[in-house]
Amino acid sequence: MSMVVIPAIDLKDGRCVRLRQGDMNQETSYSQDPPAMAQHWEGLGAQRLHVVDLNGAVDGKPKNFDHVLAITQAISIPVQVGGGIRSLDTIREYLSHGVSKVVLGTAVLEDPSLLEEASREFPDRILIGVDVKDGMVAVHGWTNVSDSTPEDVFQSLKPYALSGVIFTEISRDGMLDGPNLPALEHAARNSPFPVIASGGVTRVEDIHAVKKLGPNICGVIVGKALYEGTLTLSAAMEAASSVPC
């Protein structure tokens, strides 16, 4: 069983950037042309892209919608999108304009009815972002920490027809110091849906380590490591497919 490697494109003010631990004031800009960046990853063999509207995540509504749609129109591989998706209308808008799956985060905690309606109308096209800081789930673009644990969220997700869970360890995101393997293993063991790992993957050895956590880890999102060159997409994909679960 192979594990899919998903390059990340984080959008801020129409640019491709990476943040350190989700801090909007600590950014590195990599491109002014998001569609070209998407084509770059597709050309290197990516099977899927993970796109985040950083402004939307903080503001609570899409801010880079046109840039996201430009990405979906520029490539043929599936695109999953998160950031500021907190209404059924926004979900419908994205999915009707070429986005393959949407990622809900804060909305799940603050409006459970949205999750119920979205999963009923779009079964298996909804991913849940579980973003963790100091063992608790963070919300509003990681600017606030809730009183919910990952286990609380996993338990609440069981009744719904979801595509999977994206588990992000915020302290590792954009830091290039490796993933939090114990936290990921715990998530894989407790999540009722397949888990996509995110945060800290830096080198080939990290891909091997994540893959060995078991078959419930179905994918890994890689961002800064690809942009900084500590990991190539081809090497990541080879590692993801070559290590037996």
Automatic annotation (TrEMBL):
Q: Which residues form the active site?
A: 10 (proton acceptor), 131 (proton donor)
Q: Where in the cell is it found?
A: Cytoplasm
Pathway assigned in UniProt: Amino-acid biosynthesis; L-histidine biosynthesis; L-histidine from 5-phospho-alpha-D-ribose 1-diphosphate: step 4/9
Asked if the Swiss-Prot or TrEMBL record annotates the protein with the keyword Cytoplasm, the reply is yes
The alphabetized UniProt keywords are: Amino-acid biosynthesis, Cytoplasm, Histidine biosynthesis, Isomerase
CDD domains attached to this UniProt entry: HisA (cd04732)
Provide the E.C. number(s) assigned to this enzyme. Answer: 5.3.1.16
Name of one Pfam family that matches: His_biosynth
Q: Primary place of residence?
A: cytoplasm
* Reaction catalyzed: 1-(5-phospho-beta-D-ribosyl)-5-[(5-phospho-beta-D-ribosylamino)methylideneamino]imidazole-4-carboxamide = 5-[(5-phospho-1-deoxy-D-ribulos-1-ylimino)methylamino]-1-(5-phospho-beta-D-ribosyl)imidazole-4-carboxamide
Q: Which SUPFAM superfamilies match?
A: Ribulose-phoshate binding barrel
Q: Which residues cross the membrane?
A: none
GO terms assigned for molecular function: 1-(5-phosphoribosyl)-5-[(5-phosphoribosylamino)methylideneamino]imidazole-4-carboxamide isomerase activity
Superkingdom in the source lineage = Bacteria
Query: Which InterPro entries would you find in this protein's record?
Result: Aldolase_TIM, His_biosynth, HisA/PriA, HisA_bact_arch, Isoase_HisA-like, RibuloseP-bd_barrel
Q: Which family does it belong to?
A: Belongs to the HisA/HisF family.
Q: Which PANTHER family match?
A: 1-(5-PHOSPHORIBOSYL)-5-[(5-PHOSPHORIBOSYLAMINO)METHYLIDENEAMINO] IMIDAZOLE-4-CARBOXAMIDE ISOMERASE (PTHR43090:SF2)
**Name the UniProt record assigns to this protein:** 1-(5-phosphoribosyl)-5-[(5-phosphoribosylamino)methylideneamino] imidazole-4-carboxamide isomerase
Native source species: Candidatus Nitronereus thalassa
Taxonomy of origin reads: Bacteria, Pseudomonadati, Nitrospirota, Nitrospiria, Nitrospirales
